[in-house]
Write a structure and sequence with these properties.
The structure holds 3 protein chains of 3 kinds. Chain B is built from 4 helices and 6 strands; from the N terminus they run E-H-H-E-H-E-E-E-E-H. By secondary structure, chain B is α/β, with parallel strands linked by helices. The termini of chain B are far apart. Classes of the chains: A alpha/beta, B alpha/beta, C mainly beta.
């Protein structure tokens, strides 16, 4: 019988979603240096660990496109070609950064500044509106631990954690026992507001079906009712006035409420004004009881990207360095808007897949110009890139810091080595910065 | 058969999440993300089998995906396509100057396809490059 | 008025950041000096003469009239921070036209892009076509935006027009907008703005309005639930004293905001006629 030597790594932080679970256990086959088993992770996190094993999709060497095909080249050649593209560009875009660790993100800022480029991360298409609203009206936030221990009323608004943050309900918001919620699920009242009767809604205590794109009016009606105003309307956004009054009573009578919100508010019409209203509602509820809210961040380190960009530039995303100092204006300097106008003439995509996630009109223009992709495995973006720089998976093959959705920083672990000639995102960006500086004559 | 006056929503599903981690250019991803989920009663009006390719059309584009019945209904008048390159052929790229496109809430209509193929992710991308 | 003429040689492929084009920057300079003025084209520093044919000079800012011809839809920040004089743009113009303007007048004979007249402090901005989003709005993170001045848009304005506008009766500041039709969230977070829409208006007009007046002479897609109908009026008195006649339904709002709700008498439920916000919709 062949004996398999296995090492188990404990307390591994999962590099998939903003819940950033920190209790995974990963078994590694020592000889093959591959993942054999993952315990405690959700389906998606587990799959991510397994996808780091060598496969047809994993890039092992840098690639350059020649005659419409990718051919493998040396790091020197690939870095040279990439630096060339960036230096010659008049309006380069550096985008992504949400699925890598903080030190790499910091290098991204450095590179953007040297190039006078646009610097953006995935918040631009995701929770950017939440940040815009927070910049306008502030936000009463806390940490997931506090919600787990105290919240007896939990609202998911435009968020479907069963599908997007699978272990959130079990670790922080619904099924877990908390210090003041010793009876777990039975100590909590869960409300879901969504146009569809999602799987999260199906296991909630109250489901409120709201008409798509009409969340603002509903929040507005709740705020007015909370103030004691008699509304003139009989029904708002598909919800009857009686139901709104019942809901307001529930909100006032709880001990500690929390609203978790997601793309249902940020990606529908009104975008950041939906969040603006939700924040004002939450703040106004504190006249009656304790109420807070939390954006359900999608990527495991998009919060980190916002943090790192903000320390360095003062702004969290959609930053323009073209005039020699950082300027911020989503709508003017955000990636999708720039691409739609065909204003970008080359791009460096780090730890992200805009070809899959941007609207088709933006992807069309993305592909019109030189594209460099720093990516561990084949994606629709990297498959058509002019230069592919193979990266190690941060959080699996290299260490680093990541920020959870509630801005708590956690240290990512390295459980195995990167295969082939892969380097960490941070190393790749460092080398690019060196090459770019060389070409600029600095 | 066709259905008009629908509203298209897009978003995450756990299958789409698993598939994308497994490789965004795989068949698994097509099965997870190139689908359109209908409300049970709306689907009856289409008069076709589950899995029949349907063309979904919005003001911003059109795409052929596999049809299925939603497990997250009832939601009459609403169709759901998981986030990904198929959904992104249809979403509204206009962010109303806030930076984030309007991925949810587009007006849509659906036609059942007599013939027509669901493209995989790379084929979809190639179409965008040629255009 | 002395005219300084600029003619765009070729439509720029990348945005041209032309905040250098103001009467303040041109006054007292001869043509050669104006041509040497520097501005940003992408990340490159270029000279105004590279992009424009220029003629004329002036010595007094209030006598200065800059006339610009061409398709300027990719030229941003024209008239930014200007304090006097006039600019006439014969064509479409890019983002931020007249932003933070303190005085003088800008006329756009075409359409304007987003952020036209953002953070306006005074003066007049007239757009004879449509305008984009965030007309007369506050920049990100500012909770006081347009403070004074008048914006006139013949056509349609986009969303979030006059966001965080800040007028003041005691301070005699009456920031005003007149437009043909409006998008969503007109006058959001308004503190004393005066808005007149000659035509129709989209949803959520007057969201979070604390005080000010919004008059819609056409139809509104949907009125916010937090607005309370007061009654019908035949004449409106705007905060700046101006009077409008016509049959309107008067609404008080936005009552989801504390400052407005405190104006409802707790005992009688009557809405105070004093300083809270108003929405008037043609009957």
């Amino acid at each position: 019988m062949v004996e398999r030597k296995i090492k188990t790594v404990y307390d591994v932080v999962c590099p998939f979603c903003g819940t950033l679970c920190d209790d995974l256990e990963v078994d590694i086959d020592i000889k093959e240096d591959s993942v054999i088993e993952v315990r405690n992770g959700c389906q998606i996190g587990t799959k991510k660990f397994f996808s780091s094993n060598p496969s047809g999709h994993r890039y092992l060497k840098p690639r350059i496109k020649a005659n419409g095909e990718h051919k493998e080249v040396s790091w020197d050649e690939a870095l040279d070609a990439a630096a060339d593209i960036l230096v010659k560009a008049k309006r380069p875009l550096l985008y992504g950064f949400s699925s890598t660790e903080c030190e790499a993100q910091s290098k991204g800022v450095e590179l953007a500044e040297i190039l006078g480029a646009i610097l953006d991360n995935t918040a631009s298409v995701c929770h950017g509106p939440s940040l815009l609203a927070i910049q306008d009206v502030g936000a009463p936030l806390s940490t997931l631990g506090e919600y787990k221990n105290r919240a007896d009323l939990v609202i998911f608004w435009g968020s479907n954690p069963v599908h997007a943050h699978p272990r959130h309900l079990g670790r922080y918001s619904e099924f877990v026992r908390g210090y003041f919620r010793k009876d777990g699920r039975n100590d909590r009242f869960i409300i879901v507001v969504d146009p569809r009767n999602t799987h999260t809604a199906q296991i909630a205590d109250l489901y409120i079906q709201v008409k798509p794109n009409e969340d603002y009016e509903l929040i507005n009606a709740i705020r007015a009712t909370l103030r004691g105003v008699e509304l003139d309307a009989k029904e708002v956004s598909g919800v009857s006035i009686e139901k709104i009054r019942e809901l307001v009573d529930m909100l006032k009578l709880c001990n500690f409420g929390v609203i978790f919100f997601g793309m249902g508010l940020t990606q529908t019409l009104a975008h950041h004004r939906n969040i603006d209203a939700a924040i004002c509602l939450t703040r106004e509820l504190n006249d009656h009881t304790k109420f807070l809210l939390e954006p359900m961040r999608g990527h495991y380190n998009v919060t980190g990207a916002n943090q790192v960009f903000t320390w360095n530039t003062g702004y969290a995303y959609s930053i323009d360095f073209s005039r020699g100092y950082p300027r911020y204006n989503p709508g003017e300097f955000s990636s999708v808007d720039l691409l739609i106008k065909d204003e970008v003439d080359s791009s460096l995509i780090v730890a992200s897949d805009p070809a899959s996630n941007f609207p088709a009109a933006a992807v069309k223009n993305l592909f019109k110009h030189p594209l460099i992709s720093i990516e561990p495995h084949e994606t629709p973006t990297s498959a058509f890139a002019d230069v592919v720089l193979p990266a190690a998976f941060a959080g699996i093959e290299c260490e680093g810091t990541a920020y959870r959705m509630d801005k708590v920083p956690l240290r990512l672990r390295k459980v195995k080595d990167a295969p082939g000639e892969c380097l960490s995102d941070k190393e790749i960006l460092e080398k690019l910065i060196y090459k770019v500086k060389e070409k600029l004559g600095e | 058969m066709s259905l008009n006056n629908l509203i298209l929503l897009t978003g995450r599903t756990i299958n789409q999440g698993v598939a994308l981690e497994g490789g965004k250019t795989t068949k698994e991803n097509v099965r997870a993300a190139a689908i359109c989920a209908f409300d049970k009663d709306d689907f009856k009006k289409l008069d076709c089998l589950v899995g029949t390719p349907v063309k979904v059309i919005t003001d911003h584009g059109e795409v052929v995906v596999y049809s299925t019945i939603s497990e997250e209904g009832p939601h009459p008048g609403i169709i759901f396509i998981p986030m990904g390159p198929w959904a992104n052929q249809l979403v509204n790229p206009d962010s109303q100057a806030c930076g984030t496109p309007t991925y949810k809430g587009m007006k849509a209509k659906v036609e059942v396809m007599r013939s027509g193929r669901v493209l995989d992710a790379l084929e979809l991308m190639k179409q965008l490059r040629v255009a | 008025m002395v005219e300084i003429k600029l003619k765009l040689k070729k439509k720029p492929e990348l945005p041209l950041e032309a905040d250098i084009i103001t009467p303040d920057n041109f006054v007292g300079k001869n043509v050669a000096d104006i041509k040497k003025l520097e501005l940003y084209y992408g990340k490159e520093v270029v000279k105004l003469g590279n992009f424009f044919d220029i003629s004329g000079k002036s010595t007094d800012i209030n006598d200065t009239k800059i006339i610009i011809d061409g398709d300027l839809s990719n030229v941003k920040r024209i008239g930014e921070n200007m304090s006097g004089g006039e600019i006439i743009i014969n064509g479409n113009v890019g983002m931020h036209v007249g932003s933070q303007m303190k005085g003088g007048k800008i006329t756009v004979n075409g359409n304007a892009d987003d952020w036209a007249g953002a953070m306006l402090q005074g003066g007049e901005l007239e757009i004879n076509g449509d305008a984009g989003h965030y007309v007369g709005a506050a920049y990100r993170g500012f909770w006081q935006g347009m403070k004074n001045g008048t914006i006139k848009v013949k056509g349609k304005v986009g969303n979030e027009t006059l966001a965080w506008v800040n007028g003041s009766k005691p301070g005699k500041r009456f920031p005003k907008l007149i437009c043909g039709s409006a998008g969503a969230f007109l006058g959001i977070h308004s503190h004393g703005g005066i808005i007149i829409v000659e035509g129709d208006c989209d949803r959520c007009a007057g969201a979070d309005q604390v005080r000010g007046a919004i008059v819609v002479k056409g139809k509104v897609t949907k009125i916010l639930p937090s607005y309370k109908k007061i009654g019908e009026v035949g004449e409106i008195e705007l905060p700046n004293g101006e009077k409008l006649t016509g049959k309107f339904i008067e609404y008080s709002g936005d009552h989801s905001v504390d400052k407005n709700h405190s104006k409802i008498d707790k005992k009688t439920g009557e809405i105070s006629k004093s300083s809270n916000g108003r929405l008037y919709i043609a009957a």
